[in-house]
Design brief:
With 322 residues, this protein is an alpha/beta fold. It has 10 helices and 10 strands. Strand 7, helix 7 and strand 8 form a beta-alpha-beta unit. The two termini are 17 Å apart.
Length: 322
Protein backbone atom coordinates (compact mmCIF):
# COMPACT_ATOMS: atom_id res chain seq x y z
CA UNK A 1 0.00 0.00 0.00
CA UNK A 2 1.39 3.43 -0.93
CA UNK A 3 2.58 5.41 2.07
CA UNK A 4 3.26 9.06 2.84
CA UNK A 5 5.62 10.12 5.61
CA UNK A 6 4.79 13.70 6.57
CA UNK A 7 7.18 15.96 8.44
CA UNK A 8 6.04 19.30 9.86
CA UNK A 9 7.84 22.60 10.03
CA UNK A 10 8.74 25.44 12.34
CA UNK A 11 6.98 26.48 15.55
CA UNK A 12 4.90 24.52 18.02
CA UNK A 13 2.18 22.14 16.88
CA UNK A 14 -0.86 20.22 18.19
CA UNK A 15 -0.23 16.61 19.30
CA UNK A 16 1.13 14.35 16.56
CA UNK A 17 -2.11 12.45 15.90
CA UNK A 18 -4.12 15.67 15.68
CA UNK A 19 -1.61 17.27 13.34
CA UNK A 20 -1.60 14.24 11.05
CA UNK A 21 -5.40 14.18 10.98
CA UNK A 22 -5.42 17.90 10.18
CA UNK A 23 -3.09 17.47 7.22
CA UNK A 24 -5.15 14.56 5.86
CA UNK A 25 -8.34 16.67 6.21
CA UNK A 26 -6.69 19.56 4.36
CA UNK A 27 -5.87 17.29 1.41
CA UNK A 28 -9.46 16.05 1.36
CA UNK A 29 -11.08 19.48 1.77
CA UNK A 30 -13.45 20.65 -0.97
CA UNK A 31 -12.40 23.87 -2.62
CA UNK A 32 -9.90 24.85 -5.26
CA UNK A 33 -9.28 21.41 -6.77
CA UNK A 34 -10.48 17.78 -6.73
CA UNK A 35 -10.08 16.35 -3.24
CA UNK A 36 -7.41 13.81 -2.39
CA UNK A 37 -8.82 11.63 0.37
CA UNK A 38 -5.93 9.37 1.36
CA UNK A 39 -8.17 6.88 3.12
CA UNK A 40 -10.46 6.26 0.19
CA UNK A 41 -7.46 6.12 -2.16
CA UNK A 42 -5.75 3.43 -0.10
CA UNK A 43 -2.78 5.57 0.97
CA UNK A 44 -1.49 5.26 4.53
CA UNK A 45 0.42 8.03 6.30
CA UNK A 46 2.42 8.85 9.41
CA UNK A 47 3.90 12.03 10.87
CA UNK A 48 7.55 12.61 11.74
CA UNK A 49 6.85 14.78 14.78
CA UNK A 50 9.46 16.89 16.55
CA UNK A 51 7.75 19.96 18.05
CA UNK A 52 8.16 18.52 21.55
CA UNK A 53 11.96 18.72 21.20
CA UNK A 54 11.77 22.53 21.12
CA UNK A 55 8.49 23.34 22.91
CA UNK A 56 7.33 22.47 26.41
CA UNK A 57 3.78 21.35 25.61
CA UNK A 58 1.78 20.92 22.41
CA UNK A 59 -0.77 23.36 21.14
CA UNK A 60 -4.40 22.57 22.11
CA UNK A 61 -6.04 19.82 20.10
CA UNK A 62 -7.95 21.21 17.17
CA UNK A 63 -5.67 24.19 16.58
CA UNK A 64 -4.17 24.39 13.14
CA UNK A 65 -1.88 26.68 11.19
CA UNK A 66 -3.05 30.22 10.53
CA UNK A 67 -1.79 33.70 11.33
CA UNK A 68 -3.60 33.73 14.68
CA UNK A 69 -2.36 30.28 15.64
CA UNK A 70 1.20 31.22 14.69
CA UNK A 71 1.08 34.07 17.20
CA UNK A 72 -0.20 31.84 20.01
CA UNK A 73 2.57 29.35 19.29
CA UNK A 74 5.34 31.85 20.03
CA UNK A 75 3.97 33.62 23.10
CA UNK A 76 6.09 31.52 25.46
CA UNK A 77 9.26 31.46 23.34
CA UNK A 78 12.31 33.16 24.83
CA UNK A 79 13.46 35.51 22.05
CA UNK A 80 16.65 36.55 23.85
CA UNK A 81 18.59 33.48 22.64
CA UNK A 82 20.56 35.48 20.05
CA UNK A 83 22.31 37.61 22.65
CA UNK A 84 25.04 35.09 23.47
CA UNK A 85 25.98 34.07 19.94
CA UNK A 86 29.52 34.75 18.70
CA UNK A 87 31.68 34.16 15.62
CA UNK A 88 30.33 32.28 12.63
CA UNK A 89 27.19 31.30 14.50
CA UNK A 90 26.31 34.93 15.12
CA UNK A 91 27.13 35.82 11.50
CA UNK A 92 24.82 33.07 10.25
CA UNK A 93 21.92 34.32 12.36
CA UNK A 94 22.45 38.00 11.54
CA UNK A 95 22.63 37.37 7.78
CA UNK A 96 19.53 35.20 7.81
CA UNK A 97 17.66 37.64 10.06
CA UNK A 98 18.40 40.45 7.60
CA UNK A 99 17.24 38.40 4.62
CA UNK A 100 14.02 37.32 6.34
CA UNK A 101 13.42 40.88 7.61
CA UNK A 102 13.25 39.68 11.19
CA UNK A 103 14.63 42.96 12.55
CA UNK A 104 12.84 45.41 10.26
CA UNK A 105 11.74 48.45 12.34
CA UNK A 106 8.01 48.58 12.88
CA UNK A 107 7.67 51.79 10.88
CA UNK A 108 9.12 50.04 7.84
CA UNK A 109 6.90 46.97 7.89
CA UNK A 110 4.34 48.29 5.46
CA UNK A 111 6.95 48.80 2.74
CA UNK A 112 9.33 45.92 3.39
CA UNK A 113 10.29 44.51 0.03
CA UNK A 114 11.92 41.41 -1.38
CA UNK A 115 12.94 40.43 -4.91
CA UNK A 116 10.11 39.34 -7.16
CA UNK A 117 10.31 36.02 -8.98
CA UNK A 118 10.65 35.96 -12.75
CA UNK A 119 8.90 32.72 -13.63
CA UNK A 120 10.29 32.70 -17.19
CA UNK A 121 13.95 33.29 -16.38
CA UNK A 122 16.58 31.04 -14.82
CA UNK A 123 16.85 33.09 -11.62
CA UNK A 124 14.66 35.43 -9.55
CA UNK A 125 14.84 38.95 -10.95
CA UNK A 126 16.66 41.44 -8.76
CA UNK A 127 15.34 44.62 -10.35
CA UNK A 128 11.70 44.14 -9.46
CA UNK A 129 10.00 44.30 -6.09
CA UNK A 130 6.72 43.37 -4.52
CA UNK A 131 5.50 45.12 -1.39
CA UNK A 132 4.49 43.63 1.95
CA UNK A 133 6.49 40.45 1.60
CA UNK A 134 5.14 39.25 4.96
CA UNK A 135 1.67 40.82 5.02
CA UNK A 136 0.98 40.50 8.73
CA UNK A 137 0.64 43.10 11.47
CA UNK A 138 4.11 43.97 12.82
CA UNK A 139 3.56 42.58 16.33
CA UNK A 140 2.67 39.17 14.88
CA UNK A 141 5.29 39.20 12.15
CA UNK A 142 8.22 39.94 14.43
CA UNK A 143 7.54 37.29 17.05
CA UNK A 144 6.66 34.61 14.52
CA UNK A 145 9.72 35.13 12.35
CA UNK A 146 12.10 35.39 15.32
CA UNK A 147 10.78 32.13 16.75
CA UNK A 148 11.13 30.44 13.36
CA UNK A 149 14.73 31.66 13.14
CA UNK A 150 15.43 30.17 16.57
CA UNK A 151 14.15 26.74 15.56
CA UNK A 152 16.22 26.72 12.36
CA UNK A 153 19.36 27.88 14.17
CA UNK A 154 19.03 25.20 16.85
CA UNK A 155 18.84 22.51 14.17
CA UNK A 156 21.70 23.76 12.01
CA UNK A 157 24.02 24.12 15.02
CA UNK A 158 22.79 21.01 16.88
CA UNK A 159 22.07 23.09 19.98
CA UNK A 160 21.53 21.33 23.30
CA UNK A 161 18.00 22.34 24.29
CA UNK A 162 15.82 21.52 27.28
CA UNK A 163 12.11 21.99 26.53
CA UNK A 164 11.04 20.58 29.89
CA UNK A 165 12.58 19.86 33.25
CA UNK A 166 14.62 16.66 33.08
CA UNK A 167 14.73 16.42 29.27
CA UNK A 168 17.58 17.69 27.12
CA UNK A 169 18.14 17.05 23.43
CA UNK A 170 20.88 17.71 20.92
CA UNK A 171 18.35 19.10 18.46
CA UNK A 172 19.72 17.93 15.11
CA UNK A 173 20.73 14.52 16.44
CA UNK A 174 17.27 13.92 17.89
CA UNK A 175 15.37 15.15 14.83
CA UNK A 176 17.52 13.07 12.51
CA UNK A 177 16.90 9.97 14.63
CA UNK A 178 13.15 10.50 14.59
CA UNK A 179 12.98 11.12 10.86
CA UNK A 180 15.06 8.06 9.97
CA UNK A 181 12.90 5.88 12.23
CA UNK A 182 9.76 7.12 10.47
CA UNK A 183 11.29 6.51 7.04
CA UNK A 184 12.21 2.96 8.01
CA UNK A 185 8.68 2.30 9.24
CA UNK A 186 7.15 3.98 6.17
CA UNK A 187 9.24 1.90 3.79
CA UNK A 188 8.04 -1.27 5.51
CA UNK A 189 4.40 -0.18 5.22
CA UNK A 190 4.72 0.82 1.57
CA UNK A 191 6.17 -2.53 0.55
CA UNK A 192 6.30 -2.68 -3.23
CA UNK A 193 4.24 0.49 -3.66
CA UNK A 194 5.42 4.10 -3.54
CA UNK A 195 6.83 5.73 -0.41
CA UNK A 196 6.75 9.54 -0.60
CA UNK A 197 7.91 12.14 1.93
CA UNK A 198 5.85 15.34 2.18
CA UNK A 199 7.73 18.05 4.07
CA UNK A 200 6.71 21.58 5.05
CA UNK A 201 8.92 24.50 6.07
CA UNK A 202 11.86 23.37 8.25
CA UNK A 203 10.70 19.81 7.72
CA UNK A 204 12.18 20.17 4.23
CA UNK A 205 15.58 20.98 5.75
CA UNK A 206 15.42 17.92 8.01
CA UNK A 207 14.30 15.65 5.18
CA UNK A 208 17.02 16.86 2.83
CA UNK A 209 19.70 16.65 5.51
CA UNK A 210 18.81 13.05 6.38
CA UNK A 211 18.45 11.88 2.78
CA UNK A 212 21.74 13.48 1.85
CA UNK A 213 23.94 13.06 4.92
CA UNK A 214 22.66 10.23 7.15
CA UNK A 215 23.97 6.90 5.79
CA UNK A 216 21.37 4.75 7.56
CA UNK A 217 18.41 6.70 6.13
CA UNK A 218 16.55 4.44 3.66
CA UNK A 219 15.74 5.43 0.10
CA UNK A 220 12.36 6.92 -0.81
CA UNK A 221 10.48 7.12 -4.10
CA UNK A 222 9.61 10.81 -4.00
CA UNK A 223 10.00 14.05 -2.06
CA UNK A 224 7.38 16.81 -2.05
CA UNK A 225 8.54 20.02 -0.38
CA UNK A 226 6.35 23.04 0.34
CA UNK A 227 7.26 26.45 1.74
CA UNK A 228 10.90 25.40 1.83
CA UNK A 229 13.81 27.61 2.97
CA UNK A 230 16.30 25.37 1.13
CA UNK A 231 16.88 28.09 -1.46
CA UNK A 232 18.53 30.41 1.07
CA UNK A 233 22.33 30.57 0.83
CA UNK A 234 22.65 30.65 4.60
CA UNK A 235 20.67 27.44 5.03
CA UNK A 236 22.67 25.69 2.33
CA UNK A 237 25.96 26.70 3.92
CA UNK A 238 24.79 25.27 7.24
CA UNK A 239 23.88 21.85 5.85
CA UNK A 240 26.52 19.13 6.03
CA UNK A 241 26.78 17.45 2.65
CA UNK A 242 25.87 20.55 0.64
CA UNK A 243 29.12 21.65 -0.96
CA UNK A 244 28.53 21.72 -4.70
CA UNK A 245 25.12 22.53 -6.15
CA UNK A 246 25.93 20.49 -9.28
CA UNK A 247 25.87 17.31 -7.18
CA UNK A 248 23.61 18.30 -4.28
CA UNK A 249 20.61 16.16 -5.23
CA UNK A 250 20.12 13.25 -2.78
CA UNK A 251 20.81 9.90 -4.44
CA UNK A 252 18.26 8.34 -2.06
CA UNK A 253 15.35 9.87 -3.99
CA UNK A 254 14.57 7.22 -6.60
CA UNK A 255 12.00 9.12 -8.63
CA UNK A 256 10.88 12.78 -8.29
CA UNK A 257 11.43 15.84 -6.15
CA UNK A 258 8.63 18.41 -6.53
CA UNK A 259 9.04 21.76 -4.76
CA UNK A 260 5.85 23.83 -4.29
CA UNK A 261 6.10 27.48 -3.29
CA UNK A 262 4.17 30.72 -2.91
CA UNK A 263 6.10 33.87 -3.79
CA UNK A 264 4.57 35.66 -0.77
CA UNK A 265 5.48 32.90 1.67
CA UNK A 266 7.82 34.59 4.20
CA UNK A 267 9.90 31.46 4.77
CA UNK A 268 10.70 30.68 1.13
CA UNK A 269 9.72 33.85 -0.74
CA UNK A 270 13.18 35.37 -0.99
CA UNK A 271 14.46 32.43 -3.07
CA UNK A 272 11.65 29.91 -3.61
CA UNK A 273 12.96 28.04 -6.66
CA UNK A 274 15.59 25.45 -5.78
CA UNK A 275 16.20 23.39 -8.94
CA UNK A 276 19.34 25.44 -9.64
CA UNK A 277 20.71 24.77 -6.15
CA UNK A 278 20.28 20.98 -5.95
CA UNK A 279 21.33 19.57 -9.30
CA UNK A 280 21.95 15.92 -10.18
CA UNK A 281 25.18 15.52 -12.14
CA UNK A 282 24.92 19.13 -13.28
CA UNK A 283 21.29 18.77 -14.44
CA UNK A 284 18.27 20.57 -13.00
CA UNK A 285 15.76 17.85 -12.18
CA UNK A 286 13.70 19.30 -9.30
CA UNK A 287 10.26 20.46 -10.43
CA UNK A 288 9.65 23.95 -9.00
CA UNK A 289 5.90 24.66 -8.91
CA UNK A 290 4.40 28.09 -8.18
CA UNK A 291 1.11 27.55 -6.34
CA UNK A 292 -0.16 30.85 -4.95
CA UNK A 293 -2.09 30.69 -1.69
CA UNK A 294 -4.36 33.43 -0.35
CA UNK A 295 -4.86 35.68 2.66
CA UNK A 296 -2.34 37.38 4.92
CA UNK A 297 -0.34 34.31 5.96
CA UNK A 298 0.96 32.37 2.95
CA UNK A 299 3.11 29.83 4.82
CA UNK A 300 0.04 27.91 6.02
CA UNK A 301 0.40 24.19 5.25
CA UNK A 302 -3.39 23.76 5.11
CA UNK A 303 -3.54 26.26 2.23
CA UNK A 304 -0.74 24.53 0.35
CA UNK A 305 -2.55 21.20 0.64
CA UNK A 306 -5.61 22.63 -1.12
CA UNK A 307 -3.64 23.62 -4.21
CA UNK A 308 -4.60 21.82 -7.46
CA UNK A 309 -1.01 21.57 -8.67
CA UNK A 310 0.19 20.10 -5.38
CA UNK A 311 -2.63 17.57 -5.23
CA UNK A 312 -2.01 16.52 -8.83
CA UNK A 313 1.72 16.06 -8.20
CA UNK A 314 1.13 14.08 -5.02
CA UNK A 315 -1.39 11.81 -6.74
CA UNK A 316 1.15 11.06 -9.44
CA UNK A 317 3.95 10.46 -6.94
CA UNK A 318 1.98 7.85 -4.97
CA UNK A 319 0.55 6.21 -8.08
CA UNK A 320 -3.07 7.33 -7.67
CA UNK A 321 -3.73 8.99 -11.03
CA UNK A 322 -6.32 7.54 -13.32
Amino acid sequence: MAHITFIHGLLNKPPADDLLAGWRRALAREGRSPVFDLGSEGVTSTMSYWADVLYEAPEPSGSFESAGDELSQVVGVDLSWRAGLVGGEREFVERLAAKLQVDVPEGADATAAAPAVDETGPEPASNEQFLEWVPLPPFIKKRVMKAKLRDLHHYIYNVSHSPRSGETYAVRDELRKRFVAQIEAGAARAGSEKHVVVAHSMGTVIAYDCLRSVPECPEIDGLLTLGSPLGLDEVQAGLPGWENRRNAYPAKIRDRWVNVYDRLDPVCGFDPRIANDYERDGQRVIEDVNEQNWGRWRHDSAKYFQGPLLRRALREMVGRVG
